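To illustrate the input format used throughout this study, we show a single complete record. The first block contains the structure-token representation of the backbone; no residue identities are included at this stage. The design step must infer an amino acid for every position from geometry alone.
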């Protein structure tokens, strides 16, 4: 179902990246819930339109640093113009159940956005297109994430509650909080 929606609305999430099955595996059982969903990277609004249809009860927010994203044709999504690597853009947006980073795909941006948005993520954080920027790109961001979580795990007190698990599939990395 999600694959058809991605193709219908014109995002390349299925046609190029084949992410639909992974998204459905992560979220199909929650698609009717009143989720708060944030996607970094709006462009023409294609993926926001797919989310609007797939998650009929969700509140959807898109962030894009390009002011042209305000022209995206969406129905109920809110579009925020700003750089998602900057706290000022995200500070007043609250917490989200699902966060998707489909922004610049540059490791330095992916790590900055992750640092700001993972603490605001209640269920799952999805980082798309890891490695799209070149061969070393994949190694760099995965190495950074590995170090980030090693430090987080080291800092846990006992009992250790804020656990998450990680899925790496194709060019997508997802972090899901075990407590949800
Ligand atoms: C791949 S497109 C998004 C595609 C859209 N998610 C879809 O599937 O239809 C990436 C978008 O991310 C935006 N972007 C890049 N870096 C960003 C940043 N640091 N903060 C916010 N938006 C950013 C770009 O302006 C561009 O519109």
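Output of the design step:
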């Amino acid at each position: 179902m999600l694959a058809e929606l991605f193709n219908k609305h014109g995002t390349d999430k299925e046609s190029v990246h084949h992410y639909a099955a992974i998204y459905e595996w992560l979220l199909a059982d929650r698609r009717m819930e009143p989720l708060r969903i944030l996607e970094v990277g709006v462009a023409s609004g294609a993926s926001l339109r797919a989310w609007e249809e797939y998650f009929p009860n969700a509140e959807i927010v898109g962030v894009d640093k390009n002011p042209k994203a305000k022209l995206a044709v969406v129905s109920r999504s809110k579009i925020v113009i700003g750089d998602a690597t900057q706290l000022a853009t995200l500070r007043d947006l609250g917490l989200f159940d699902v966060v998707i980073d489909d922004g610049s795909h540059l490791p330095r941006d992916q790590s900055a956005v992750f640092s700001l948005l993972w603490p605001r993520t209640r269920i799952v954080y999805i980082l798309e297109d890891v490695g799209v920027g070149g061969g070393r790109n994949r190694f760099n961001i995965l190495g950074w994430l590995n170090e980030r979580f090693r430090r987080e795990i080291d800092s846990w007190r006992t009992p250790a509650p804020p656990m998450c698990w990680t899925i790496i599939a194709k060019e997508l990395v997802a972090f899901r909080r075990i407590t949800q």
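Structural context for interpreting the output: Helices lie at 2-9, 12-15, 20-27, 46-54, 87-90, 107-117, 135-155. The first strand starts at residue 36 and ends at 40.
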